[in-house]
Amino acid sequence: MVADKKEAKLWVRQQNALYKKAVWGVVFLGFLNVILGCIQAWFLASALAHILDSSMDGFVQAVLWFFVTCLLRILLNFTQQLIANSLGQKARSQLRKKLLSQIFAAGPALLRSHHSSKVAGLLVDNVEMLEGYFSRWLPSSYLWALAQWFVVAVVFWQNRSAGIILATASLFLPIFQAIFGIATARTSRKQFLALSRLQGRFLDRLRGLATIVMAGRSEQEAEALQKSADELRQRTMKVLRVAFLTSATTDLVMIAALVGIVITESHFLLHTGNISQATNALFAVFMVPEAFAPFRSFSAAYQDRARATETAEVALSLPKPQYDNEQHEFNLGDSEAVELKFDDVSFHWSDDREWVLNHISFTLRPNEILLLNGPSGAGKSTLLELVLGFIKPTNGTIFFNNEDITKIKPKELAHHISYLGQKPLLFFGTLKENILFARPDASEKELQSAIKAAAIDKFLPQLPHNIDTMIGEGGFGLSGGQAQRVAIARAYLKNAPLILMDEPTAHLDKETEAEILSSLTNLAKNRTVIIATHSAQFTALKDVKTLNLPLHQYVTEKGKS
Fold first, then answer.
1. Any stretches that span the bilayer, and where are they (predicted)?
2. What mean pLDDT is predicted for residues 290-309?
3. CATH top-level class for 340-555?
4. Whose CA is closest to 490, among 538, 424, 541, 430?
């Protein structure tokens, strides 16, 4: 879904309103800086006028005041930049938290409608690009007109003819800038879309790298990526060309104003004898760059505004939370147990495709284990996705303790489910950090209990730094069985009443599988468990029920069909 431009602008204005007071603080410091710039230019003009007149009376005093204003401007610039950067950091942090909350509220189904690279790009790249919007664009958008016309008024007060020339140049500049600004926004938008497409394509190809190599299409895909990268390069260069033209327009108008003032004031500069008039003439010349400095900052930050609109469009494309704060607040109470019921559940991906699941009905109570049997493609993972909330049933209802699962907040649902897949998601960091990922606030006692329950303590002595050993992305440095034990330890720490497992012992040897199965048996105690597996060893577990897919024959007792 592409957000409407009006909605995007409204979203941007809402962000502006949140930080309006802080922005005005930066604007106030910027205006003080402009006032100091006027004072600085006056003392510099006075010092040079004394030199031109060969008069040292008052020269030293003017030079001293010039250096004092220089130091004050440096301190003021530093303070202004510090506050502006702090504003940008705070705004990005709060916006990222807000978007994360919205994504969590939408639940796993979000990834069915939005590519994961798009969501990741929004949270990382898009939000990070707003640093310039909050720290540069917002202050300069308020400051440029106020500061520029303040300078024009000061010059006009001191020198009428120079003030008129400067005012005329200031009036024409926004017209030229508007033309190039629109072009900059359009080229920037196209460049952003090209970047998003390249991100999605690269992530897709990276995920399917093994399949691409086996299919012998590595060269074709490399060429396609090269083509997308070249398109992005061309669009980026176009953005830079338009940006340079915008900057050149400002320089040309400023030079024209400078030349006009120098010509009209040349008789005061060439004929000495009147220090006051020479000072006024030099002051008007020095104030030309000062008058255009606010607009230059405004123009340089224009692209930051375009990025804010792009971010708004992506953020608005996220689904809105379907549940209010009071309704559908699911609570297990003191029972800490889950009864899962499928009531005539069917699912297919589209009307022109066959049913993946057809009229599935069963009831799974606490302390019971459901084994999903069937060949690959029979629908085992699809059934798990239905329980996890990635997809919704086409027909029928899934009940979670007699509550329709589609009416439960995704965040609440995720709180009561632990998931163990074929390959655990491990990240670069210590082994301890990877285990605590399930519950960062867990106590040391709870951590050690999970480590022992998952039998991680058996291989800890083999690691160079015990639990503080660094492991690589994807579990590099650990065997398949060791990585799976980390996932089991996470499940122990989370202590969710419903556990879903999708081929948890796949790609493991028989001995390691038996060890993992022992840990999983302990994990399954007093919990409701669904296991999708091809392994016959899981049938040895107690209180096992079996669902054969795609034959839809439900077994209520072990060994009976």
1. 21-52, 58-76, 137-157, 163-183, 242-263
2. 78
3. alpha beta
4. 424
Burial state string for 343-371 with b = 16 or more CB within 10 A and e = fewer than 16 = eebebeeeeeeeebbbebebebebebbbb
In terms of Cα–Cα distance, which of 305, 530, 289, 323 is closest to 410?
A: 323
Residues 358, 549: Cα–Cα separation, whole Å: 10
User: Can you tell me the distance from the alpha carbon of 491 to that of 500, in angstroms, rounded to the nearest whole number?
Assistant: 10
Question: What's residue 75's pLDDT?
Answer: 94
Token readout for 411 is 């965040």
Through-space distance between the first and last CA atoms of the chain, rounded to whole angstroms: 47
Q: Could you read off the pLDDT of 377-389 as tens digits, one per residue?
A: 788 888 988 898 8
Distance of CA 446 to the CA centre of its chain: 33
Q: Could you tell me the fold of the domain covering 5-316? A: ABC transporter transmembrane region fold (1.20.1560)
Q: Is residue 451 within 8 Å of residue 457, measured between CB atoms? A: yes
Q: How confident is the model at residue 247 (pLDDT cuts 50, 70, 90)?
A: low
Cα–Cα distance measured from residue 443 to residue 441, given in angstroms and rounded to the nearest whole number: 6
pTM above 0.85, yes or no: no
Please name the residues in contact with 548: beta carbons below 8 A apart, sequence gap of 6 or more.
Answer: 373, 374, 554, 555, 561
Instruction: Tell me the average pLDDT of the chain.
Output: 79
516 and 508 Cβ atoms separated by less than 8 Å: yes
Which of these, 379, 329, 362, 384, lies nearest to 498 by C-alpha position? 384
- Residue 527 half-sphere exposure toward CB, CA atoms < 13 A: 23
Domains of the chain, by residue range, sit at: 5-316, 340-555
At 557 the pLDDT is 39
**Minimum mean pLDDT range among 24-28, 75-79, 160-164, 506-510:** 506-510
Q: Which two tokens stand for residue 389?
A: 């909330």
Name the nearest CA neighbour of 389 among 366, 355, 412.
412
Q: pLDDT tens for residues 263-289?
A: 887 776 666 557 777 888 888 888 888
Cβ–Cβ < 8 Å for 330, 491: no
SS3 349: coil
